[in-house]
Structures are given as C-alpha cells and as structure tokens.
Amino acid sequence: SKRIGVLGAGQLGRMLALAGYPLGQKFGFYGISQDEPSALLGHFHLHSDEADNLKALVDFADVITFESENTDLQVVREIAKTTPVYPGERSLEVAQHRGKEKSLFKEKGIPCANFAVVNSLEELQQAVNVIGVPSILKTTTEGYDGKGQFVIKTDDQVEQAWEAIGGRELILEAFVDFHRELSLVAVRNAAGEQRFYPLVQNVHHKGILRYTIAPAQQVSEMVQKQAESYISTLLEELDHVGVLTLELFETEYGLFANEMAPRVHNSGHWTIEGAQTSQFENHVRAICGLPLGSTEARQPIAAMLNIVATTGPIDKVLQMPNAHLHLYDKEERAGRKLGHITLLSDSQEALFADIKSLNAFLPL
Ligand code: ATP
Ligand code: MG
Ligand code: MG
User: What's the predicted TM-score (pTM) here?
Assistant: First the structure.
C-alpha cells in the first residue's frame, strides 16, 4: 500500500482516489483553487494553499501526482528533490506550454497545425501574414475548456484578437478543417510497459467537451495504430509515468495532434464503467509501480455525457438501467463541469436512442 499525494482536489483527484482505494492505497490532497469540491474522500482534507499544508502533504506521501497541467512547475521541482513525482517534471513542462508541446510534435514527426509563438501585436500581424486565416489564437499557458482563445476569421480582426487575450505570450495556430475530434488515452509505468485505450470521438460546444463516444465509430485498425505510435513516441520521449492523453483532429490528410494532457482526461471517464481497468486505476497502478490493467472495453459501445452548468433531470438518469451518474459536488455555474453520465450499450442504435432521451443534458 502506498500513500499518494495529489496536487489539486477536484473531480479528477476524487476519481483517482475512488479507483485507488480498492487497491489498498491511501490518498491525501492539496487544494489549489477555491473551486474544488468540498466533500473529498481521503486521509487528508486540505483546503488552503498554505505552505504548511503542502509540506504536510509531501511528508505524508510516498508518491506525488497532479490533477492539472497548470500545476506550478517550480513547486513540482521542489517536491521532486525529496519525493517522486509522476508524471515527471518534463511531461508537465511540455504539456503546460502549447508552444513547447507543438514544437515537440513537430520534432517527433507528429503532424499538427502550423503555429507561431508571438509576444506582441507586431509579431501577431506577421504570424497572421504567414499562417493566414482562419486561425486560432491561444494563450500559451493556463487555458482549458477553450478559455483564452480567439478565432481570427478575417485579416482585419488581428487587433481585436490581441486586445481580447494579448499582453502576454500567445500562440497562433492554423485552423484545422477536421471531420471530427478524437482522443487517445494511454498509460505507461516506470518499467516502460504501455497500454492504449481505443480511440474515442469527442464533441465540443463552445470549447467545452459535451460528449464522448467510445470507441469512436469507423476507425480503422491503421488509424488506431497510427495514434498509438504517436502517443508511444511521446511517452518514451518524456519518460512519462502515468496516464497521458493525446487530443487529435481527424482530417482528410490523416490525424493531426491538437494537444496533450499529462493526466487522466475527461474523454477517458467512460472507462470507469466501460473498460476492464479505468484510466484512474491505471494511473494509480502506473505511479505505484504496479503492472498495468487491461484497457479493453467491456461492451460494444459507450458514451459519456458531461453535465455542464446546471445539474438537470438526474432522476431520469437514475431510472436508466445502463446509465451511471457521477456528480462532483460542485456548485452550478455557467460553463462549469458538474458531473458526467456514462451510458453502456450493445449497439450504436440503442446508444443514440439513450443519448436522445437525455438531450436535456446536451446543448441546443
Ligand atoms: P481542453 O479543455 O481540452 O484542455 P483547451 O482550452 O486546452 O481545451 P484546445 O483543446 O486547444 O483548448 O481547444 C478547444 C477546442 O477548440 C478543440 O477541442 C477544438 O474543438 C477547437 N480547436 C482548438 N484548436 C483548433 C485548431 N487549431 N483548429 C480547429 N479547431 C481548434
Ligand atoms: Mg487543454
Ligand atoms: Mg483540448
């Protein structure tokens, strides 16, 4: 049994603990933001960002992990001097900076959008001249759920874009004309063992993931293998230990990488009920030096629906025999992920009928 310290105390940490307790692990949490769920399970129950509490967590833990790529790199470097941190600081450093991330993709031959890192309106104007429109301007760090982004549709929007999110380092990316968005969740342990979940399809609305279909339909063996080879390259290059997720665009020219997350991922939540071993359990196994579990799906098809902004008709979900409800104990707020629903099905038709009956949880 190991004592696992988690930097962050949101729903991802909570689901890690729920997966790790049956393996006999203990958990402690260090709350970083005021927004995190209050009812955390765990050995520890820390709520402030005081240095004392961080020290207490590090003293408690055999191994430290983190919930977010926005975790302070300096804090992780300091902890790593005394306690193993998985994934390691290199994974965190690259994944928290869109410029470093895309440079690594490029260096490793993983296709991605043309991009340029810019620090001023002049540099942005030059980058737009080269990359063209439409393009998408993002903060290099800290963005999530599509926050800190501006789609530049026409040449005359450059100043407006800089005014909206500029004054800091930004990245301009060519707008990828994709058929659909896919993601691959993978896991690697310190012994170098790797496992891959099936590619899933993700549907976003206003930058926020609304639902995932697992596995993505009509994915050839070749495309699955291609995605696995991309993420495997990254896992090895970063000497990554834990779960790593790669978000991909499927285009007429093949797969393009969008971004990676050095952690369990919203598009992997279906694995809790839908796979032999969940992404959370596999992350725990990986960081504890245990053998990895099977990533096979347990049923032909599953879906994960995010509950965003308001809780919605949850009684309906509770009445469905093949639905599983997860609420994160967070207060309702515009654009906020409050929970998710997993649907397990024998066929695509049955799944889509169930999704339709829960359309109150989906936008439009
Ligand atoms: P996440 O919540 O997944 O961490 P994020 O805020 O880090 O999101 P991205 O994943 O980069 O942001 O972008 C959010 C969404 O915006 C993508 O899932 C995709 O739908 C769209 N998008 C981002 N970059 C591009 C691009 N270069 N071309 C086309 N669409 C894009
Ligand atoms: Mg992101
Ligand atoms: Mg994303």
Answer: 0.96
